[in-house]
Design brief:
Blueprint lengths: L1 H9 L10 H16 L12 E5 L5 H8 L3 E6 L2 H13 L5 E5 L13 E7 L8 H9 L2 E12 L5 H14 L3 H10 L12 H8 L9 H10 L2 E6 L17 E8 L1
Parallel strand pairs: 1-2, 1-4, 2-3, 4-5
Antiparallel strand pairs: 5-7, 6-7
The chain binds S-adenosylmethionine (SAM).
Length: about 260
């Protein structure tokens, strides 16, 4: 997915600004929620071998490292990783190793095996999410845990309709689309409480696919991953996710 790589090279994500107490508190709250999907608290991360695949600018990797995990952070975007490397240098972090690799195209045999693998918001931007998942499961230690987050099949309907019109009426080129989107005051889109990052993630990222819990459970079964937990927004009858505000769903499993 060259287009996706080029996109993230320029438009870094999530690239959080964690300066104020409030920003740090909200970020911690988000990670605690994510860790709850693997039944972990931050202190359980100590000395664990953690892989953050598709780490982006690595804000989550840094949190895991602060709680003394040995973190490997991988992304295929040089732009994303240069932001992470800068943060690592500025904060003198010693327990993060960074690699630039493509989950789908590259051989990952050089990597060690991991206690925990996070792959959050990544697989649905690849050309073959199942292959990506399968490759990740090969990197788990016995009893290792994997947590993935994907866009739900019935989510983002409104964004998908708007994307369709934007791409067909404005431009398919994400740079042109970005310029159009943010150049004049598109007040309909630029509503309060929605950050610029969120907006380009919703409407401008070149490619995304959509999945269901049922499908993910099949992936787990095929790869001897025992289902552990999923996020609240995906439980029950999946078609009702059409009314859900949250667009990502999380599923964790343990290698048997
Ligand atoms: C939405 S961002 C998620 C970043 C991070 N996981 C997070 O939760 O904040 C998706 C990331 O996946 C990366 N990515 C997409 N396809 C990839 C691939 N085939 N191999 C490696 N990284 C990939 C992108 O470069 C981008 O940094």
């Amino acid at each position: 997915m060259e287009e996706v790589k080029k996109f993230y090279d320029i438009y870094n994500y999530p690239n959080l600004k964690l300066y104020t107490y409030r920003q740090k508190r909200n970020h911690k709250k988000l990670i605690l929620k994510i860790l709850s999907y693997i039944n972990f608290s931050p202190k359980d991360l100590k000395n664990k071998d953690v892989l953050d695949f598709g780490c982006g600018t690595g804000d989550k990797s840094i949190f895991f490292a602060e709680y003394f995990a040995n973190v490997t952070s991988i992304d295929f975007s040089k732009g994303q990783l240069s932001v992470l490397n800068k943060k690592i240098k500025e904060n003198n972090i010693k327990n993060i190793t960074v690699y630039q690799k493509d989950l789908i195209k590259d051989d990952l045999c050089f990597l060690k095996k991991y206690d925990i693998i996070f792959c959050i918001g990544v697989l649905h931007h690849t050309e073959n999410p199942y292959l990506g998942f399968e490759k990740l499961t090969k990197l788990l230690k016995p009893n290792g845990i994997i947590l993935i987050a994907l866009y739900h099949r019935y989510s983002r309907i409104r964004f998908r309709i708007i994307r369709f019109f934007l791409k067909n009426l404005i431009s398919k080129d994400f740079n042109k689309l970005y310029k159009w989107f943010f150049s004049s005051k598109k007040t309909f889109f630029l509503r309060k409480n929605v950050s610029k990052n969120t907006l380009y993630d919703r409407y401008i990222v070149p490619y995304e696919s959509y999945h269901s819990l049922k499908e993910v459970k099949k992936w787990f079964f095929k790869n001897n991953i025992f289902f552990l937990k999923c996020s609240e927004n995906v439980k029950g009858f999946e078609f009702f996710k059409i009314f859900e505000k949250k667009t990502l769903f999380f599923v964790s499993g343990i290698k048997k």
